[in-house]
Amino acid sequence: MPTPPRPRFKSDIRIKKDNGRKVEPETAPCAVAGCIKPGNSRVPKSRENLTEYVIVCAAHARAFNESWDFFKGMGDGDVQKFREEALFGHRPTWPMGKRAARARTGQGPMHFHDGHAVFDEDGEPSQVRRPERQLTRLQAIAMDTLQLAHNATLLEIKARYKELVKRFHPDANGGDRTAEERLKQVIKAYGVLRASGLLS
Known about the structure:
single chain, 200 residues, mainly alpha, Helix Hairpins, 3 domains, two-stranded antiparallel sheet
């Protein structure tokens, strides 16, 4: 009778016995002076430094928790300020508005370059940024039909379309259908711009 093939991997994993002894992990001693118990609990060093800990035994950790008062020594104003800052996770915040915007554009402590003119100076009208685009032949013909410059903004295109539809629609002209062909051209041109994704 042929012998079965040997498995590629060992199937008998041997676990080393510890002879019934329980192995305790090494623990640091309690940080309280005079205490010989093992330290198995962490308590923060201070209110100002909550990320660094001291290792203490369970009894001293219990005593620390019973006497812990985070707001001890703080006045009513400090407690109220802490509560307000807690709403934002104690992160810095800035007021909204033109003055805050001016502070961020070089006239305050937080200077950065505002290359897109998002924050305008007081009293200056905001400049509409003209899109820089390459139009296809059909898009250029459509813009010419709407009597618009090729770098017209989305709002300008929509406003001109509404204006021309109102001007050439028979209902606006007392039922006169002489401008109906011009209306069809305007609607077709707007459809071309919309279908080409220019108005999205």
